[in-house]
TrEMBL record:
GO MF annotation: an example: hydro-lyase activity
Source superkingdom: Bacteria
Swiss-Prot/TrEMBL GO biological process terms: fatty acid metabolic process
Species whose genome carries this gene: Mycolicibacterium mucogenicum
Family: Belongs to the enoyl-CoA hydratase/isomerase family.
Keyword annotations: Fatty acid metabolism, Lipid metabolism, Lyase, Transit peptide
Pfam families named among the record's database cross-references: ECH_1
Function: May play a role in fatty acid biosynthesis and insulin sensitivity.
PANTHER family in alphabetical order: ENOYL-COA HYDRATASE DOMAIN-CONTAINING PROTEIN 3, MITOCHONDRIAL, PTHR43602
Protein's UniProt name: Enoyl-CoA hydratase domain-containing protein 3, mitochondrial
Keyword Transit peptide belongs to the record: yes
NCBIfam families, per the entry: PRK08139.1
């Protein structure tokens, strides 16, 4: 029996781990892989018991981007438009999930693989990780990865990566804001778990409301952002976990 393209695991806390599983192809995003990811995210969006998602990969690389052999096999505008629309839908599904998605990155993350890291809410990388939007090296500007990249790192840094195709290290990625934490390869899982444990210890309602608001307001003008944020905080305050948390703080005791 062949190995699945996407492995799925879940622990008793509701933490789901999705693992890209095409190590022989550096986990390139084939159409089949994109379909698997899209279906997985759709199921997770409907599961209220999920608390966090870790997106990782098997083998030496996180993700080498689109499957170029597959792309070259069908050179038509309609095919390419459909492929990039499919990829965009997967990327947006990450942002629309009500729980945080944490990228666990080792090795290379290039082109749409770098985009995948940028679209995750949080990212933890091993010291050996390297990042690039390198399509320009074969004559293809990484336009869709650039959408995610330019919303994570400063404008000039993003543009330099896009027009040079050069790699940046894990430490450079952290300094630019593409990843949150960097760890030694042998400590990568422990660092990811530290992030996950902190998230699942928080009230699920507050995390879900906060994530949705975060992405809405960041694309809005400041007045609209404040209006949205104020309404969200008021609704959040009415949640029993928030009311109890505030009361416990006032009474100097752990929340029930």
């Amino acid at each position: 029996m062949s190995e699945p393209l996407l492995r799925r695991d879940r622990d008793d806390r509701g933490v789901v781990t999705l693992t890209l599983n095409r190590p022989q192809a550096f986990n390139a995003l084939s159409e089949a892989m994109l379909t698997e990811l899209g279906e997985a995210f759709a199921r997770l969006a409907d599961d209220a018991t999920v608390r966090a998602v870790v997106l990782g990969a098997s083998g030496k690389a996180f993700c080498a981007g689109h499957d170029l052999k597959e792309m070259r096999a069908e050179p038509s505008l309609a095919y390419y438009q459909g492929l990039f629309a499919q990829c965009t839908a997967v990327m947006m599904a990450i942002q629309r999930l009500p729980v945080p998605v944490i990228a666990r990155v080792q090795g290379l993350a290039t082109a749409a693989g770098c985009q995948l890291v940028a679209m995750c809410d949080l990212a933890v990388a091993s010291h050996d990780a390297r990042f690039a939007v390198s399509g320009i090296n074969v004559g293809l500007f990484c336009a869709t990865p650039g959408v995610a990249l330019s919303r994570n790192v400063p404008r000039k840094a993003a543009f330099e990566m896009l027009v040079t195709g050069e790699f940046i290290s894990a430490d450079e990625a952290k300094a630019l804001g593409l990843v949150n934490r960097v760890a030694a390869a042998e400590a990568l899982d422990d660092e990811v778990e530290a992030v996950v444990a902190s998230i699942v210890a928080k009230p699920a309602v507050a995390v879900a409301m906060g994530k949705a608001l975060f992405y809405r307001q960041i694309e809005a003008g400041i007045e609209a952002a404040y209006a949205d944020a104020g309404s969200t905080m008021a609704c959040n305050m009415m949640d029993p976990s928030a009311l109890e948390g505030v009361l416990a703080f006032i009474e100097k005791r752990p929340p029930n």
